[in-house]
Amino acid sequence: MAAPQQSSLRNQLLAGLSPKDFAPLRPHLEPIELDLRRVLIEPNEPIEHVYFHEHGYTSITTNGQGSKIELGLIGREGMVGVPIALGVRTSPLQFFVQLAGDGLRMTSHELEDAIDERPSLHRVLLRYAQVMSVQTSGTAFANAEHTMERRLARWLLMCHDRVDGDDIPITHEFMAMMLGVRRAGVTTATQVLETSGLIDAKRGVITVLDRKGLEEFADSAYGLPEAEYARQMAKGR
Amino acid sequence: MPGRWRKGGDMPRYFLHLRFRDGPDGLAVDEEGDEVREPRLRAHVEATARDLMRRTRLGAVRNWRNCTFEVKDEGGQLVFVLPFSELPTKR
């Protein structure tokens, strides 16, 4: 398989790099299928590869002792393996594919070498790390401040940002686990959003009907990390 | 963890529909259900209700004690109804 052309990539982090920063990554990027629930990074295990989603997305969760709850979401806007850019080889968190798709990966060593070679590449990845930190803060804020309905709206918007079209394949059981609530709590919140005409919920799939309305509903639960991404990642191409 | 998503098995499945207000929009229909053995069913539903009351903040629910679980089996038959108000106040 030939090394990918930058212009044909859907991953926005890679596509947004300057050609000079992309060049040292290109020969190492290997296409990979990202199957549902595949664990990309195990807690406290060496991070062998970093991953760039082209389709689908990955959840960052607590490591599953007792209850498991979602802390962050990484899709085609980002990279799974931020600790490597921060000089760390492990994470206490788990990263697993929540929506199946595909992407590119390279070894952590190769990324470290590229970072050493290109400080400007490192700066882009550090800015992305900052955006992820803001996203996690946003999760903490939403969990502490907002109702289940708004938390669900935020989460659906984050998924919607990372899928093609308006359908988000997801079960209530899984949503309940990600949001740290009994399934009936998610089902009720879903019902409220559906009654408001913002989404359509069928078994195993939620369709976003009114994106703008959903953003208004989510209010301050959604938008801060997304604005930070736009601000930080537009810099220093 | 992956087992939680797996289908089938010989465990019966029960559906916990949540009545949180009057009218057709006031019933949160559970389409997925929980696999529970019948003798454990009531304890499971009560634990679920208690956990909701204790930890879940829903804009649509002013008072959890006005809510009711309508528990149905796979054939759609009502097994029992659990008004949250019938749960002991302390856990």
Describe the structure.
The complex is a heterodimer of chains A (237) and B (91). Chain A is α+β, with helices and mostly antiparallel strands. Chain A has ten helices and ten strands. The longest helix of chain A is centred in the middle third of the chain and has 27 residues. The mean pLDDT of chain A is 94. Chain B is α+β, with helices and mostly antiparallel strands. Chain B has one helix and five strands; from the N terminus they run βββαββ. In chain B, strands 1, 2, 3, 4 and 5 form a five-stranded antiparallel β-sheet that branches. In chain B, strand 4 and strand 5 form a beta hairpin. Chains A and B meet through helix 6, helix 7 and helix 8 of A and strand 2 and helix 1 of B.
Distance between the termini of chain B: 27 Å
Record the strand order, biggest sheet of chain A: 2-6-4-5
Which of globular, elongated, flat, extended, rod-shaped describes the shape of chain A? Answer: globular
* Quaternary structure of the protein: heterodimer
- Proportion in β-strands of chain A: 15-25%
What's the total helix number of chain B?
A: 1
**Average pLDDT for all residues of chain B:** 89
Series of H and E elements of chain A: HHEEEEEHEEHHHEHHEEHH
Q: Biggest chain pair contact, residues each?
A: A-B, 25 and 26 residues
Runs of chain B in which pLDDT lies below 50 for 5 or more consecutive residues are 1-6
Q: Flag low-confidence runs of chain A.
A: none
Biggest sheet descriptor of chain A: 4 strands, antiparallel
The proportion of residues in beta strands of chain B is 15-25%
The tally of strands of chain A reads: 10
Number of helices of chain A: 10
